[in-house]
TrEMBL record:
<dbReference type="Pfam" id="PF01597">
    <property type="entry name" value="GCV_H"/>
</dbReference>
<comment type="similarity">
    <text>Belongs to the GcvH family.</text>
</comment>
<dbReference type="GO" id="GO:0009249">
    <property type="term" value="P:protein lipoylation"/>
</dbReference>
<feature type="modified residue" description="N6-lipoyllysine">
    <location>
        <position position="59"/>
    </location>
</feature>
<keyword id="KW-0450">Lipoyl</keyword>
<feature type="domain" description="Lipoyl-binding">
    <location>
        <begin position="18"/>
        <end position="100"/>
    </location>
</feature>
<dbReference type="InterPro" id="IPR033753">
    <property type="entry name" value="GCV_H/Fam206"/>
</dbReference>
<dbReference type="GO" id="GO:0019464">
    <property type="term" value="P:glycine decarboxylation via glycine cleavage system"/>
</dbReference>
<protein>
    <recommendedName>
        <fullName>Glycine cleavage system H protein</fullName>
    </recommendedName>
</protein>
<dbReference type="InterPro" id="IPR017453">
    <property type="entry name" value="GCV_H_sub"/>
</dbReference>
<dbReference type="GO" id="GO:0005960">
    <property type="term" value="C:glycine cleavage complex"/>
</dbReference>
<dbReference type="InterPro" id="IPR002930">
    <property type="entry name" value="GCV_H"/>
</dbReference>
<comment type="function">
    <text>The glycine cleavage system catalyzes the degradation of glycine. The H protein shuttles the methylamine group of glycine from the P protein to the T protein.</text>
</comment>
<dbReference type="GO" id="GO:0005829">
    <property type="term" value="C:cytosol"/>
</dbReference>
<dbReference type="InterPro" id="IPR000089">
    <property type="entry name" value="Biotin_lipoyl"/>
</dbReference>
<comment type="subunit">
    <text>The glycine cleavage system is composed of four proteins: P, T, L and H.</text>
</comment>
<dbReference type="InterPro" id="IPR003016">
    <property type="entry name" value="2-oxoA_DH_lipoyl-BS"/>
</dbReference>
Length: 124
């Protein structure tokens, strides 16, 4: 399973034609205590980098963008009652949704973990 990142700090894990999406640990840390996650509707179709969901913290509200094009096939309902899961486990239990990937070539526009780590260094 490969993991990729966007410049907007989303991550995506690709497994066959399924993509699990969330925000990076860096983004969760920057946002501070997350108070609400606006989950997308199952069945929603998105293009790469379209707004997929929303997230609110004590510091800010921001959009979550789709790292790849596809159709939402599942959402992490645990986040409705426990949005802090994103803070506690941003890149595992705090996932936002799963997409059925429409175009496997979309990953070419994303960064792997090493490239993302380099990108973060440039932001400091």
């Amino acid at each position: 399973m490969s993991m990729y990142f966007t410049k907007e700090h989303e991550w995506v894990k690709i497994d066959g034609n399924q993509a699990t999406v969330g925000i990076s640990a860096h983004a969760a840390h920057e946002l501070g205590d997350i108070t609400f996650v606006e989950l997308p509707q199952v069945g929603k179709t998105v293009k790469q980098f379209d707004t997929l969901a929303g997230i609110e913290s004590v510091k800010a509200a921001s959009d979550i963008y789709a790292p790849v094009s596809g159709k939402v096939v599942a959402v992490n309902n645990k986040l409705e009652d426990a949005p802090e899961l994103v803070n506690e486990s941003a890149e595992e239990d705090g996932w936002i949704c799963r997409l059925e990937v429409a175009n496997a070539g979309d990953v070419s526009a994303l960064m792997d973990a090493a490239a993302y780590a380099e990108y973060l260094k440039g932001l400091e």
